[in-house]
Write a structure and sequence with these properties.
Number of domains of chain B: 1
Largest interface: A-B, 96 and 99 residues
Number of helices of chain A: 15
Structural class of chain B: mainly alpha
Number of strands of chain B: 2
Radius of gyration of chain B: 25 Å
Strand content of chain B: under 5%
Radius of gyration of chain A: 23 Å
Distance between the termini of chain A: 37 Å
Number of strands of chain A: 0
CATH class of the domain at 62-231 in chain A: Mainly Alpha
Helix content of chain A: over 70%
Oligomer: heterodimer
Shape of chain B: globular
Largest sheet of chain B: 2 strands, antiparallel
CATH superfamily of the domain at 62-231 in chain A: MetI-like
CATH superfamily of chain B: MetI-like
CATH topology of chain B: MetI-like fold
Number of helices of chain B: 13
Chain lengths: ~270, ~300
């Protein structure tokens, strides 16, 4: 590679680094300012001592704690259910013989073309009729299964030699045991990768929660943080709001940094999900 | 789900197991996917305020109203503007990032790979608030920088010409890491020998990229183009939070328009008709993608 090109490449990477990092730095610097006045008067100055107490204050602002608990509860519950339903369905499609298998699998693939948004009006009306508006049920049950997850898990099950299943059958293991102990162990890395993707999808969701919840008691962080901004409009306490934003972003970033290989693994299979 | 007449080759117990294993998934799909999608078409043919027990059948009136309203074309135009530019810019930058990092094996390069992907996992609504703070014309990063230079910062999110680009910038910021990752895996599958041969023939770096890398990565580009495009068509969070579709609807997009029509103006019939139109648009793009992917023999989803 010629040196000019190499230098241009390095320059480009520096530029991208600045573009990627600046928003984070700006958020962190603001979040460490002692008060609103400092935010406005000395914005680029990293305060000494930094006001780490802002993070505690932000979390204590009512009802941030409730939002956080709701986020964890709904994301964990939906992820766990998605794993169970995906393993069951993927096992059936991979190892069991039944009529209409291909057609039924096509019905699963068809769901990939039906994002929630395209049927939000009947969904709202149904959730309302079920009496589920503003309940955890509305935030968890519709997401207890994900077609993309079924597809992914099935792909991984297919890559595992059938001999394992045959051997387990001979030893007298039932289908449930084979699916949840043997297959799950063999496909562990891909299941973790899928679980992370499912968790990220539920953790970051804004649209569904915005429509299906109406009280602070059921809102999750992505909706809650916007509400915190809106109620404060006019006199936004940017140092606290940025501290809260950081707290919202931190769990996913920590999860990513600690389990990076699982994040990138699934993406390479060629899936996208907002 | 089971046919009443069982053929000999199926084992009865296995059939029951399959039924029970597929039951949780299909019950949820039926209730929350198939039925709502069909119900949506029915609602789109009615006049309904979202709450009243009766819906008045109006035939295709909602569709006629939509296709004769200027607002619809404006929103559709905005959606395609956003989709087009955020897709093109993300793909361009992501490709260049993958190329620039491709032959670097140092620790620093690995740190950059990790770093560039972080925006992709951030909560869209939360970073939208961060973006509002960055582009706050008085005290935000933009306001302060313009201040230092002695200029007055434009009112970014209140100016139609700027607001759409601010939104696109956030979309690009969040997606370039993902695009880079997919391109990087595509690059790693190109054999080094091809470049070797090109170098012996005297091809420059730029020529190698133009004649070898770009053509060989065409399937990856195609896959990214279609998936990013389909994804971007459905943008909601960042627009809803940053501008709410304003100023003067200059940033309003289909999904937000559907939301406003149903939940702010309570015209559920119209909103359902808009949803049908969005669904059909997405369907067309998805079918095109599948067709071409199959022809290329790629096992992409």
């Amino acid at each position: 590679m010629s040196s000019v090109i190499k230098a241009l490449g390095a320059l480009f990477l520096i530029l991208i680094t600045v573009l990627v990092v600046t928003p984070f730095l700006w958020m962190i610097v603001t979040s460490l300012q002692p008060d609103s006045a400092a935010v406005l008067s000395r914005p680029f100055h990293v305060p000494f001592p930094p006001a780490f107490s802002n993070y505690v204050k932000a979390m204590q602002v009512e009802p941030f704690g409730i939002y956080a608990v709701n986020s964890v509860v709904t994301a964990v519950a939906a992820t766990a259910l998605q794993l169970v339903t995906a393993i069951l369905a993927a096992y059936a499609f991979t190892y069991l013989h039944f009529p209409g298998k291909n057609f039924l699998f096509l019905l699963v693939l068809a769901v990939l073309m039906m994002p929630t948004q395209v049927a939000i009006i009947p969904l709202y009306s149904m959730i309302s009729k079920l009496g589920w508006l503003d309940t955890f049920k509305a935030l968890i049950i519709p997401f207890a299964v994900d077609a993309y997850g079924v597809f992914l898990v099935k792909q991984h099950f297919q890559s595992i030699p059938k001999d394992y299943v045959e051997a387990a059958k001979i030893e007298g293991a039932g289908h449930l045991r084979i699916a949840f102990v043997i297959m799950t162990n063999l496909a562990k890395p891909s299941l973790i990768a899928y679980a992370i993707m499912a968790f990220k999808w539920r953790w970051n969701d804004y649209f569904w929660v915005l429509i299906m919840t109406s009280s602070v008691n059921r809102r999750t962080l992505p909706v809650g943080i916007v509400m915190m901004k809106e109620v404060s409009d006019g006199g936004t306490q940017w140092h606290l709001l940025m501290a809260a934003t950081l707290v919202v972003l931190a769990p996913m970033i920590i999860l990513y940094l600690s389990m990076q290989k699982y994040f990138t693994q699934d993406y390479l299979k060629g899936g996208v999900k907002g | 789900m089971r046919r009443p007449q069982l053929k000999k080759k199926y084992n009865r117990q296995e059939l029951i197991t399959a039924f029970l294993f597929l039951l949780p998934m299909f019950s949820i799909f039926i209730v929350f996917k198939y039925v709502p999608l069909l119900d949506n078409i029915r609602i789109s043919l009615t006049s309904w305020n979202l709450f009243s027990p009766t819906k008045k059948f109006v035939g295709l009136q909602n569709y006629i109203n939509i296709f004769t309203s200027e607002m619809f074309y404006q929103v559709l135009g905005n959606t395609f503007f956003y989709t087009f530019w955020s897709t093109i810019i993300s793909l361009g930058l992501g490709f260049l990032m993958a190329i620039a990092l491709s032959h670097r094996k140092s620790k620093g390069a690995n740190v950059l790979r990790t770093l560039f992907f972080i925006p992709n996992i951030t909560t869209a609504s939360a970073v939208a608030i961060l973006w509002m703070w960055i582009f706050d014309p008085d005290f935000g990063l933009s306001g302060q920088l313009f201040n230092l230079l002695g200029w007055e910062s434009p009112r970014w999110l209140l100016t139609p010409g700027y607001a759409k680009w601010i939104i696109i910038s956030l979309s690009v910021w969040r997606s370039i890491g993902y695009i880079m990752l997919i391109y990087a895996s595509g690059l790693s599958s190109i054999s080094e020998e091809i470049y070797e041969a090109a170098r012996i023939d005297g091809a420059s770096t730029v020529q190698q990229v133009a004649r070898i890398t770009i053509p060989l990565l065409a399937p990856t580009t195609y896959f990214l183009l279609m998936t990013t495009f389909i994804q971007a068509m459905q943008v909601f969070d960042i627009v809803a939070v940053m501008t709410g579709g304003g100023p003067y609807n200059s940033t309003n997009v289909i999904n937000l328009y559907i939301y406003q029509t149903a939940f702010a103006r309570f015209r559920a019939g119209s909103a359902a008709a808009l949803s049908v139109i969005l669904f059909l648009l997405l369907l067309v793009f998805t079918i095109i993608q599948r067709k071409v992917s199959q022809q290329r023999g790629k096992d992409y989803v």
